[in-house]
Amino acid sequence: MNDRTCIVTRQTGTPETLIRFVVGPDGSVVPDLKRELPGRGCWVTAERWAVDQAVAKKHFARALKQKVEVNPALGGMVDTLLARQLSGMMHMARKAGEFVTGSSKVDIAIRSGEALAVFHASDAAADGVRKLDQARKAFQMMAEEESPIPAFRPFSTDEIEVLLHENAFKHAAALAGKAGEGVVKRAMMLERYRSKTGAKGKAAMTNK
């Protein structure tokens, strides 16, 4: 089997489209999102349904060629880790000046072309989302882009407050730069993980 072949779909992929799992010291299967942990590993398509299927059908023991302990909630654990990665990168981007919050600042970032992506709380007021959607459409037309700046709704207001504390937001934007690009990359990973064959998930990306 190719080093990077999903143990569920048997399809090859890249580190960006697969999640590596290894056996921990206690014999349990753990996700290795940074692909740094030692030991024999295996790969699973970076989508929740694939991880859940690997757990249900005992693919890990076969792929790792040993008896392993698999937490039935492994799929949820991965979701939590991906969410923490995203919020952590948001913190870093904020410190680097590449992540702004507040409707007014986001509107300016969109219309100036600085915004790489827009973020809304999943329970943000429809009126606030609509106004920023209008800004995205206006910039798309002005810049003659094929599609508007992507928008994500990965977390509820309560989740944002827990993850980001004083940096909590209803509306935010990732700006051009290495840290801002990192935010978008991790948002896309979380969106993909929570979706199934393109179906909208909790962190569904909208291109209205």
UniProtKB/TrEMBL annotation:
This is YlxR domain-containing protein. The lineage of its organism: Bacteria, Pseudomonadati, Pseudomonadota, Alphaproteobacteria, Hyphomicrobiales. InterPro entries: Ribosomal_eL30-like_sf, YlxR, YlxR-like_sf, YlxR_dom. Residues 4-69 form the YlxR domain. Pfam families: YlxR (PF04296).
